[in-house]
């Protein structure tokens, strides 16, 4: 499975087809609570041929991976971008927790399925710039660029593992989870 960044399709029909396939995958996985779906079922739900799904994505894991990343790009990242100025770590973390709680069945299925590692890496890649900005806000120019990048990567990976465990474990109460995650990150930041 290739984790490269997918260029947005320029042709409107291609974008529409990709969106239909990703939405069908999201709905089937969410309805069933498992990634035990087939490309044929996704193609049928998207009203396209199996061949078209293969042409766009290659295999089932790639469809599932892209469906998870697409959901985060479409719904989570814009909400976080709206919160950017001034940086409010609690609001950002609560937005993240609410997103994963709302789509917990879908993400739990992906994070326990065959595309789990690739999805974890992909979500970390999406969240890294957000956390990098947070590190810059807190530390300004007191850290070297490398140290700021390393700290952002460390926080993103650790928070990602924490979120994954929470989603797989049941994803209840985004407020309480936000408080737990903020407390852990605060201890780390204060120690620096």
SSE blueprint:
Layout: H1 12-32, H2 39-46, H3 50-57, H4 60-82, H5 89-102, H6 104-111, H7 116-139, H8 145-169, H9 174-191
Model description:
- The structure is a single chain.
- This protein is mainly α.
- It has one domain (12-191): Tetracycline Repressor, domain 2, CATH 1.10.357.10.
- It has helices at 12-32, 39-46, 50-57, 60-82, 89-102, 104-111, 116-139, 145-169, 174-191.
- Helix 2 (39-46) packs across helix 3 (50-57) and helix 4 runs parallel beside helix 7 (116-139).
- The longest helix is centred in the C-terminal third of the chain and has 25 residues, at 145-169.
- Mean pLDDT is 90; it is low at 1-5.
Strand content: under 5%
How many DSSP-defined strands?
0
CA(first)-CA(last) distance: 38 Å
Largest beta-sheet details: none
Derived from helix and strand composition plus strand pairing, the structural class reads: mainly alpha
CATH level 3 topology:
Tetracycline Repressor, domain 2
